[in-house]
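User: Good morning. I'm curious how protoporphyrin IX containing FE would be positioned relative to this chain. Could you predict the structure with it bound?
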Amino acid sequence: MTEPTEPTAGVSRRKFFSGSAALAGAGGMALGVAGALASGAAASAPTEPVSDVERMAARANLSYPFYGEHQGGIDTPPQDHLVFTAFDVTATSPTELQLVLAKWSAAMAEMTSGAPVGKVEPGREQAIPGDTGEATDMGPQGLTLTLGFGPSLFDERFGLAPFKPADFAQLPAMAGESLDPALTGGDLCIQACANDPQVAYHAVRNLARMARTMVKTKWTVLGFGRASAGANQTTPRNLMGFKDGTRNVKDVVDLDAHVWVGEEAGQPWMVGGSYLVARKIHMLIETWDEDTIGDQQSIFGRTKGEGAPLSGTREHDVPDFHATVAGAPAIAPDSHIALVAHENNGGTKILRRGYNFTDGLDAVGRLDAGLMFLSFQKNPIQFATLQRKLGSSDRLNEYIRHVGSGVFAVPAGLPAAGSYYGKEFFA
Ligand code: HEM
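Assistant: Good morning! Here's the predicted structure, ligand included:
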């Protein structure tokens, strides 16, 4: 059994405030604060008072180990910002794909430690900078980069069919979705999460840039205000104003049982990996905002303020789906939580790691925003089982539209420098 990734207060090769004497003394303190932040206690008071500058330095210097049994960005406590991008591979030879994966793996290791991917100032006026430079001096900011392979990567182009996990395919069409082909699929995906949006953006930009003759971006979502919670993290709110992530997969027993792929996958490169489902879900926010509080609460099965199940009073009270109030179920059977709770789905659980997103206004001036739903599970069937129920019965469907979708096989973590994702494919 694997413990959740322990964060470290990484010493970045870049300094947060270069030359700042103030931070030299903050280093020791930063370790303590970073530990507190990373263990999910971001909102709780650190044991010792620290200044704002020290707090910022700790946050900036927070880094997670890149090498390990699992990729980062799965059981890592959700950071504040997301850049999710799906790519199609335009290269046609296996060697070029191998090159992309090797280059990306090395660059991911560098950027998650806070290092640039090449010289920002190459030393010669005529030289093109290696790194684009916008994250210089910002620190790793808890950056994790999670790589996934779409089912289409295993088609005839690269000879990877023997490595395709059994039954790995695009998600089946499901009720209640209006998917836009421009926001669907992808041969590869990168989920970049960090506590600073510019650091996450920089990472995806530089990965895309270094492979620009071999991959092209297909769709991307910028997320903010993590709409999910890991162990010991306070529960944030989604754009409908409800706490999101209360009953998430948070402990190692559940991770092993529901998230990490085991030997049963039949593909050694996936053992310790997971499957990522990405759904861009548009919210009809103006309509939602006109609904009554009673109806909103009944739709989710939880109170809006505390986030308590309607059968209880506190956020973490276990929902009682048999409780009644005046003869009627306290939690409506067609409420969101009743439909997807593991108690009502043969024990099925998924690790949700979504983010709020906004794309400004749509063509007719309405708020274009919603939830970038991301979930990790040991088999995409877990997601499909829950989504089938939601798609056909969820009262939330009146207020949401699934517009984007992808499913990706997320390989296990890399053991050490020199290894790269997909190496087994090219042996
Ligand atoms: C815009 C779309 C969605 C919104 C706004 C939303 C919001 C919420 C909220 C507020 C909760 C209750 C708090 C919590 O336990 O986290 C919740 C729970 C949950 N949601 Fe969603 N959700 C959405 C889509 C989905 C989808 C697509 C799935 C999976 C197919 C899903 C699966 C779950 C699960 C498994 C729970 C925990 C239920 C429990 O065990 O009590 N949600 N969601």
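The pocket of protoporphyrin IX containing FE is lined by residues 238, 240, 242-248, 279, 281, 283, 300, 302, 319, 336-337, 340-342, 350, 371, 373, 383, 386-387, 390, 400 (CB under 6 Å). Residues 7-63 form one domain.
Let me know if you'd like a different ligand tried.
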